[in-house]
């Protein structure tokens, strides 16, 4: 929707009206035709979509009336600046989504109620360095990242050295973005690349033709691995091998020492799904939520998707939403599979970062190259940084800098 400032003559207009876009540059206002935005469908774009979809669902379906009232009260006291120099009051939903998106992107969890009012810590001046010989890029700050904060760093792609204003090319970089762990089960058994749990029995598992075949057993039989990110999506294919009752499938937020975990269970005969928790490797499961679908047809492949953002966990069976549930107290980084139950097959297991671990001052090479690839001597790279208070989603102002890549060809 276009925003227009009226005076004796119209003095300013912004945004879109019909197919016309109003904007302004240093030399003054201008208009252009609206073009459909490009949808590159990169992992970064999909990550952002996942975060916002989770937050919208949380606002619509999971917050209590008291939660929403608290956000309304804060919204009444909040004024945001507009592009035209005025201020406006956000809706409580806008405020909830913005502050939570910042908190999640910086490594925090969903805030059901507003956090404390804080004057957020700032990075101070920031310093960027890039070396072509080592392909290392570092970002340092005057002020260390305080406890309870995450850092958001944006960088440009390698640019021409003659560019003065690089703001339009700044995009968030997230370390470990993309696939953190995967197993296509090419053969040779599930361990390695996994780690055997105390309950692991190799005889129950066979890999053949990029499929993990799990034979029937009425006992826990687990293997796991750990990832370096607390916000992620797990996906794998599932094929029910026979029409028998209970299967324990995927586990996450798993503690490798105690075996405490969240896990997904499926009852073939009724089509019932259960999201459960347990506190030890062989402990009893406590059912946290249930849902039902049509029973899985024998030999049909389906997709299980589990997105875990802090303490909020969302589970899909194909495109059907099974659960969105907040479970406090499970923060470990283990993920795994469980062979309990009857025969079934799995394929194409992967765990993908939704938002990377918060980028903190220091070596940001892996994050940078994961997004942009290599750079060469003489190119310009711009960056900015802000600190986010994770308990409130409040962020400091961005501080920016740039550097020329050094080093020989």
Keywords, separated by commas or semicolons:
mainly beta; Immunoglobulin-like; eight-stranded antiparallel sheet; 13% helix; globular
Strand and helix map with partners:
Blueprint: E1 3-5, E2 12-17, E3 20-25, E4 28-33, H1 43-62, H2 65-76, E5 80-81, E6 87-88, H3 92-105, E7 126-131, E8 136-141, E9 149-155, E10 171-173, E11 178-183, E12 195-196, E13 205-208, E14 211-214, E15 222-226, E16 231-240, E17 246-254, E18 259-267, E19 272-280, E20 286-292, E21 302-309, E22 312-317, E23 320-326, E24 334-338, E25 344-353, E26 362-363, H4 365-372, E27 380-389, E28 394-395, E29 399-404
Antiparallel strand pairs: 1-2, 2-3, 3-4, 5-6, 7-8, 8-26, 9-10, 9-27, 11-25, 12-15, 13-14, 14-25, 15-24, 16-21, 16-25, 17-18, 17-24, 18-19, 19-20, 21-22, 22-23, 27-28, 27-29
Helix pairs in contact: 1-3, 2-3
Strand content: 35-45%
The main pleated sheet reads as: 8 strands, antiparallel
Counting helices, strands and paired strands, the structural category is: mainly beta
With helices defined by DSSP (H or I, 4 residues minimum), what is the helix count?
4
Overall helicity: 10-25%
pLDDT < 50 stretches: none
Name the average pLDDT.
83
Q: CATH homologous superfamily of the largest domain, by name? A: Exo-inulinase, domain 1
Distance between the termini: 49 Å
| CATH topology tier name of the largest domain | Jelly Rolls
Rg result: 25 Å
CATH class of the largest domain: Mainly Beta
CATH architecture assignment name of the largest domain:
Sandwich
- Using the alpha-carbon principal axes, give the shape: globular
- How many strand units? 29
């Amino acid at each position: 929707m276009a925003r227009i400032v009226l005076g004796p003559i119209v003095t300013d207009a912004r945004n879109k009206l019909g197919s016309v876009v109003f904007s302004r540059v240093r030399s003054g206002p201008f208009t252009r035709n609206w073009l459909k935005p490009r949808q590159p469908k990169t992992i970064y774009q999909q990550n952002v979509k996942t975060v916002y979809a989770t937050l919208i669902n949380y606002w619509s379906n999971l917050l209590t009336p008291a939660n929403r009232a608290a956000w309304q009260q804060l919204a009444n006291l909040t004024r945001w600046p507009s592009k035209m120099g005025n201020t406006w009051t956000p809706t409580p939903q806008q405020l909830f989504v913005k502050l939570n998106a910042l908190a999640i992107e910086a490594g925090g969890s969903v805030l059901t109620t507003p956090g404390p009012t804080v004057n957020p810590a700032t990075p101070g001046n920031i310093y960027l360095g890039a070396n072509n010989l080592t392909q290392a890029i570092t970002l340092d700050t005057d002020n260390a990242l305080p406890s309870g904060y995450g850092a958001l760093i944006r960088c440009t792609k390698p640019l021409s050295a003659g560019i003065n204003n690089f703001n339009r090319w700044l995009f968030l970089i997230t370390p470990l973005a993309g696939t953190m762990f995967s197993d296509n089960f090419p053969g040779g058994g599930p361990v390695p690349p996994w780690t055997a749990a105390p309950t692991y029995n190799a005889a129950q598992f066979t890999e053949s033709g990029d499929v993990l075949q799990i034979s029937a057993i009425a006992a826990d039989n687990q293997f796991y691995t750990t990832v370096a990110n607390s916000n992620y999506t797990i996906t794998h294919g599932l094929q029910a091998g026979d029409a028998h009752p209970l299967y324990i499938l995927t586990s996450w937020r798993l503690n490798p020492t105690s075996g405490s975990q969240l896990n997904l269970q499926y009852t073939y005969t009724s089509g019932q799904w259960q999201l459960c928790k347990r506190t030890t490797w062989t402990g009893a499961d406590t059912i946290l939520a249930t849902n039902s679908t049509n029973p899985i047809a024998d030999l049909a492949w389906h997709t299980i998707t589990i997105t875990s953002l802090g303490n909020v966990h969302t589970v899909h069976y194909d495109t059907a939403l099974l659960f969105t549930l907040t479970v406090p107290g499970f923060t470990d980084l283990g993920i795994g599979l469980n062979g309990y139950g009857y025969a079934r097959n799995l394929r194409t297991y992967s765990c993908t970062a939704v938002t990377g671990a918060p980028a903190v001052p220091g070596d940001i090479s892996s994050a940078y190259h994961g997004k942009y690839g290599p750079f060469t001597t003489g190119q310009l790279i711009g960056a900015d940084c802000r600190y986010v208070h994770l308990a409130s989603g409040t962020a400091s102002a961005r501080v920016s800098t740039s550097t020329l890549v050094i080093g020989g060809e």
